[in-house]
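DM from R.C. (forwarded with permission)

"hey, sorry to bug you on a friday — could you get me a structure for this? deadline for the figure draft is monday and I only need the backbone to look sensible"
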Amino acid sequence: MLGNMNQNLAPVEAAFTARRWRVTLGVREVLRILESHDYFLSAHEIEKILGHTLDVTTIYRVLEKLQEVRLVHEFQGKWRLCSDCDNQTESHHFLICESCGSAEEIFLDYHEAISDQLAREKQFLLKKVHLGFLGTCRNCR
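My reply, with the result:
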């Protein structure tokens, strides 16, 4: 989803309109910040980048709404835009560079095998998985 603001705003407007939510200036500003970064940002980092023009509570509300409509991902208390907003799976995986902080969403096809094994061995019903693989990206190597 990273890219042109006008392109990114269309899915937000559609998702918000379907829920009768307004696309406020706060939503637009948070979206603008997220689209200009390819790594995860905390609400406090977003607040600082915005020059404290939005309070952190508002930023959290915006992020939660964007997450509810599956347009952002949360990982360890930080958020980033979905790279594929059409992907409706509950499991998400990221390659996170420990040097520059960049985060790339990747798609792994293992969920069914792990789910079957957990059900069989532990009687555990797996709903979703969020994994972050930490290492060094190709640009930092």
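R.C.: lifesaver. The chain has two domains: 5-81, 92-135.
me: no worries. The helical segments are 5-18, 25-35, 43-49, 56-68, 111-122.
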